[in-house]
Amino acid sequence: MHSRLAVVVNMSSGQGLSLSSPSSQASLQKLFAIHHLEAEFYWVDLEQLTEVLNEVCRRKFTTVVVGGGDGTLRTAASVLSQTSITLGILPLGTFNNFARTLGIPLILDEAVKVIAKDARTLVDVAEVNGYTFINNASVGIYVRAVRLREMLRRRLGLSKMPAMVYAILAVLWRFPRLDLQLASLPTGFQSVRVPFVFVGNNPYTSKPLPLVRENGLSQGCLSVLFTPGVGRKSLIMMVTKALLRPIQQDPAFEERYVQELIIRRAKRRLYVALDGEVVALRSPLVFRTRPQALQVIGAEFHS
């Protein structure tokens, strides 16, 4: 049975604004009460998130429920994976990939039911240069698209999805590539010229897009995907075909399973997308898996 919970809701997440009114907050509190869950609620914005999470950890809650999207949950995992505290999830983001992998329903009432059942499991997290991620990290095209998306949102007031579509098309037209050196792959040290390198926390399924992790989050490895020597037209064709067949079946894609990956570049700084949020890190980038570092409440893994 649950002891008292802390519930931390990021009001600036994709669906967090829907809980900005006192009546909607009261409705969420009522859901917890219906399921006999005693909870203390914290309504925060992104700037307050880490501070509040550290505060609830100091107050020795055994379970912290976090409401937000993948970026919010990445922050929560960064804090809670250093403790024995269990993470519960209210999916309030745009894509909610982490919640989907754990089988957590996207309807709040159903998500609270999962929390009430209190089925706990240990999952892996990953990190790069000390920064935690829970889904994936990447360098290259996607990073440029995210940076352009955020600029369009600031300057033109576009919503997230239309801005992202425009940004992806613009970046594909320019098609920048990176000259990188990869180490810790089974083939040894490798110099590549690539449009991107994708690093997943655990393997993604060999099914058509969208990519999912149907085998869960406890395999203790990173999935590394890249396309050396591929041009713009070829990459577009490959992604289009991946809507119909597993992306790994295309011979131009290289995939490796490793526990550590090092990426070096001549320039000292590399922009990296961590669960959809971009940070600037110094080269080399050192990616590592942290097996079973985080205890979560989930339903069943995606299948």
Automatic annotation (TrEMBL):
Residues 1-132 form the DAGKc domain. One of its GO terms (molecular function) is kinase activity. InterPro entries: ATP-NAD_kinase_N (IPR017438), Diacylglycerol_kinase_cat_dom (IPR001206), Lipid_Phosphate_FormReg (IPR050187), NAD/diacylglycerol_kinase_sf (IPR016064). Coiled coil: none annotated. Pfam families: DAGK_cat (PF00781). SMART domains: DAGKc. This is DAGKc domain-containing protein. It comes from Nitrosococcus wardiae. The lineage of its organism: Bacteria, Pseudomonadati, Pseudomonadota, Gammaproteobacteria, Chromatiales.
